[in-house]
Write a structure and sequence with these properties.
Layout (H helix, E strand, L loop, with lengths): L3 H6 L9 H19 L5 H11 L2 E2 L4 E2 L3 E3 L5 E3 L4 E2 L3 E4 L4 E3 L4 E2 L4 E3 L1 E3 L3 H6 L2 E3 L2 E3 L4 E2 L4 E2 L4 E2 L4 E2 L4 E2 L7 E4 L4 E5 L2
Parallel strand pairs: 1-4, 2-5, 3-6, 4-7, 5-8, 6-9, 7-12, 8-13, 9-14, 12-15, 13-16, 14-17, 16-18
Antiparallel strand pairs: 10-11, 18-19
Length: 185
């Protein structure tokens, strides 16, 4: 069965409060605090913190603080991507953000889900499903992307949308739940 961390990374049910995951989360807490406190620091200093925090960071990535995540090490962000203020990336499963992505303020990428059974939920069981954001996607302000969702390249998601299912490449999607309203050229 492996450790809780092994189960987490495999997308299986796990308990997040074990010592190994708690230590990983403490590392993330310290790096996020340093990054968020150094918003006015030179770009090289902020980039160094991001490189230590995230699994991989492309060239010319701009994440405006404050930024929050669960672990950081399961997030990869492609070249020339912009993430606006107050982003929350809960990465109990991998989050992959492509190149040239624009992410508006207050966007949430949420990989965890919780048990529906009352007793197991009370005990803290959760699991995660990966999120993938394709190249050249634009997520408007306040967009929420739910566990297991893939958003195809060149897609635009309107402000405030809640994305509960995969979106194909090259579309405009809006609403709650997000639905495709137009094919983009």
């Amino acid at each position: 069965m492996g450790t809780n961390k092994d189960r987490m990374l495999a997308g299986e049910w796990y308990l997040p409060d074990d010592p190994e995951l708690t230590a990983d989360n403490q590392r993330r807490f310290e790096l996020c605090a340093a990054y968020n406190a150094n918003g006015g620091a030179p770009v090289e200093e902020r980039d160094g913190i991001l490189t230590a925090l995230l699994g991989s960071v492309g060239r010319d990535v701009n994440i405006r603080p404050p930024f929050q995540c669960d672990y950081g090490s399961y997030i990869s962000i492609g070249d020339n991507t912009f993430v606006n203020y107050n982003a929350v990336f809960l990465d109990v499963a991998p989050i992959t953000v492509g190149a040239s992505v624009q992410i508006g303020p207050n966007v949430q990428l949420l990989t965890p889900s919780h048990e529906l059974d009352t007793e197991r939920r009370r005990a803290g069981w959760e699991r995660g499903e990966p999120i993938t954001i394709g190249d050249n996607v634009w997520l408007g302000g306040g967009v929420i992307v739910c566990p297991g969702v893939t958003i195809g390249e060149n897609t635009v998601v309107g402000a405030g949308a809640v994305v509960t299912k995969d979106l194909p490449p090259g579309v405009l999607a809006v609403g709650n739940p997000a639905r495709v309203v137009r094919i983009l050229a």
